[in-house]
Amino acid sequence: MLRDGQLLLQLAGLTFFFNFFFGVYSIVLPFMAQNHFGGAKAYGFLWSAFAVGSFLGGIMFSRKSWKWAMGPSMATVIVLWGILTVVLAFAHQYWMVLAIMLVNGLVYTPYEPLYKTIIQQIVPLRMQAKVSSTIRPITGLGQPTGSWLSGLLATHIGTVGLTLASGGATVVVGCATYMTPRIRNYKNGTSDSSASDSV
Length: 199
Hints:
By secondary structure, the chain is an all-alpha fold. The chain has ten helices and two strands, in the order αααααααααββα.
């Protein structure tokens, strides 16, 4: 039996929306690179900056055990991602966009390990393969769906409007996550909400 099925569903939904808003970058960055920064080479450097940020984040976060509650940490990652996306809308110089992508890489790094750790803690070992194979198609749809919808919206509100809307919506999702008891109260291995529900 699952320790907390509702928490599992909430995590899947949260990850879907995080991937969904990530998809905006596949529309906005090529447009910015092509129209303002010189094309494909500039675009490649932007994602290289993200990769460098992720690499540095991996080194930083792997040196010590995670001390903060995992649920709120995931929400914090999403809020920070949203803030950086809003800032991106006002970045008109190439070095600014590079810096944002570098920091984005740092911010993004802990999300996936935290998400998978919680899954491993609440799903029995014998069920993990089945649960993961069920959830993955759902969360994996987030990015292509976000890219598709972003492409449609960009023609109506422009890339600046799209980036602002995406960043604002991402912050809202992150803040809403803080208000979700099961995720907000999830500490390393325990959920105060689920524990109180079972009493």
